[in-house]
TrEMBL record:
<dbReference type="InterPro" id="IPR013525">
    <property type="entry name" value="ABC2_TM"/>
</dbReference>
<keyword id="KW-0472">Membrane</keyword>
<dbReference type="InterPro" id="IPR051449">
    <property type="entry name" value="ABC-2_transporter_component"/>
</dbReference>
<feature type="transmembrane region" description="Helical">
    <location>
        <begin position="265"/>
        <end position="283"/>
    </location>
</feature>
<feature type="transmembrane region" description="Helical">
    <location>
        <begin position="203"/>
        <end position="225"/>
    </location>
</feature>
<keyword id="KW-0812">Transmembrane</keyword>
<dbReference type="InterPro" id="IPR047817">
    <property type="entry name" value="ABC2_TM_bact-type"/>
</dbReference>
<dbReference type="Pfam" id="PF12698">
    <property type="entry name" value="ABC2_membrane_3"/>
</dbReference>
<feature type="domain" description="ABC transmembrane type-2">
    <location>
        <begin position="120"/>
        <end position="348"/>
    </location>
</feature>
<keyword id="KW-1003">Cell membrane</keyword>
<protein>
    <recommendedName>
        <fullName>ABC transmembrane type-2 domain-containing protein</fullName>
    </recommendedName>
</protein>
<feature type="transmembrane region" description="Helical">
    <location>
        <begin position="231"/>
        <end position="253"/>
    </location>
</feature>
<keyword id="KW-1133">Transmembrane helix</keyword>
<feature type="transmembrane region" description="Helical">
    <location>
        <begin position="151"/>
        <end position="171"/>
    </location>
</feature>
<dbReference type="GO" id="GO:0005886">
    <property type="term" value="C:plasma membrane"/>
</dbReference>
<keyword id="KW-0813">Transport</keyword>
<dbReference type="GO" id="GO:0140359">
    <property type="term" value="F:ABC-type transporter activity"/>
</dbReference>
Length: 349
């Protein structure tokens, strides 16, 4: 920013008259809209110094308004399509951004656009223009969600399911490997206990623990942190619980193919990052290449995350395909991991 406005007063910045509106010091008026917690203004003596600040990483961007910006902005409004190209260019607010950090850059970009929209609406209101004249010609309404929804609400379904899946997998794999190393598994087999009975025993025990874990996670998210949801709570609980059970089955399979704790931890942590990146938690599946999208949607909890989001954000019921498909995928992977694990145990014996 290369502009200073000492002792600025809003009065008289936009004065209507018969054929239009007279502007005065509207560049200073716009700068007052930048007094926002998200934006920290730094004054530079000229544009080149500001650009150097961006290049050296001192600031996230440079905003510049030309000399006599107010007069050119008034021409832009009065002349409309008949304005000359040079006047049109001088009536623009120029911004140079550092987009190396895309999250910060995009956030500032859209915040500037939003603040300018509010500024223009207030100016035109003072000029007694039609209220809709300053608005975008595209009117966007929201059927689901709100314009000011935080990114946390979007990430919540993926976070809940990812936590429960890998928590169940880690807990089950470590417990079973410990039992096997301590000789509990072999002694049970010698005593006549079948592989299916051992599996069911572990399943019931771990399912009870998972039930408690899911309850704590749900209470923390929706009761303690007051996260917003629109659907039925029992359905949200069921989807998360089924993913916890699916994670248990995955952990059981890992415990069968892993010889010790180190190998099990390597498998679990090695698969964690790829599955987290491809499940739609941070990278929407719609933005993936076609082949990768089909692969991502075949993972154990990608469609389940979409199902949970459909319930929590859209209020869909269990009869909707966008909900029960996610539950069916959880059930499929649970059975697949379980059956493969039992088969491998029998072949090893």
């Amino acid at each position: 920013m290369a502009t200073s406005c000492p002792n600025f007063d809003f009065k008289g910045t936009a004065v209507p008259y018969d054929d239009g509106c007279h502007f005065s010091n509207i560049s200073c008026r716009f700068l007052t809209y930048l007094d926002h917690p998200m934006i920290h203004k730094v004054k530079y003596d000229d544009v080149e110094s500001g650009k150097q600040g961006v290049m050296r990483g001192h600031v996230a961007g440079v905003l510049y308004m030309s000399n006599n910006f107010t007069a050119y902005a008034e021409k832009r409004v009065d002349k409309g399509k008949d304005i000359e190209e040079e006047d049109l260019e001088l009536s623009e607010i120029k911004v140079w951004m550092d987009m190396s950090n895309r999250q910060i850059g995009q956030a500032i970009k859209y915040k500037l656009i939003d603040l300018y929209r509010h500024f223009q609406e207030d100016i035109f209101s003072d000029c007694k223009f039609l209220p809709g004249f300053a608005k975008y010609p595209v009117n966007v309404d929201f059927y689901y969600g709100h314009e000011d929804d935080t990114f946390t609400i979007y990430m919540l379904p993926g976070s809940l399911i990812t936590i429960m899946f890998f928590m169940g997998a880690m807990m089950t794999s470590q417990t079973i490997i410990t039992d096997r190393h301590d000789g509990v598994w072999d002694r049970s087999t010698v005593a006549g206990v079948t592989s299916l009975e051992i599996t069911l025993t572990h399943f019931l025990l771990q399912a009870a623990v998972t039930l408690v874990q899911v309850s704590l996670v749900i209470i923390t998210a929706f009761a303690v942190f007051q996260m917003e949801y629109n659907g039925q709570m029992w359905l949200i609980f069921l989807i998360v619980f089924m993913q916890g059970i699916c994670g248990m089955s995955y952990g059981f399979w890992v415990s069968v193919i892993a010889s010790d704790h180190s190998m099990a931890n390597t498998i679990l942590t090695g698969i964690f990052l790829p599955m987290m990146l491809l499940c739609g938690l941070m990278w929407p599946t719609e933005a993936m290449p076609i082949g990768l999208r089909y692969f991502a949607r075949s993972l154990p909890f990608t469609i389940s995350i979409e199902a949970l989001r459909n319930v929590s954000k859209k209020g869909w019921l269990i009869t909707n395909p966008g909900v029960y498909n996610g539950m069916c995928v959880s059930l499929f992977w649970t059975l697949l991991f379980g059956l493969v694990s039992v088969y491998l145990i029998k072949t090893k014996r």
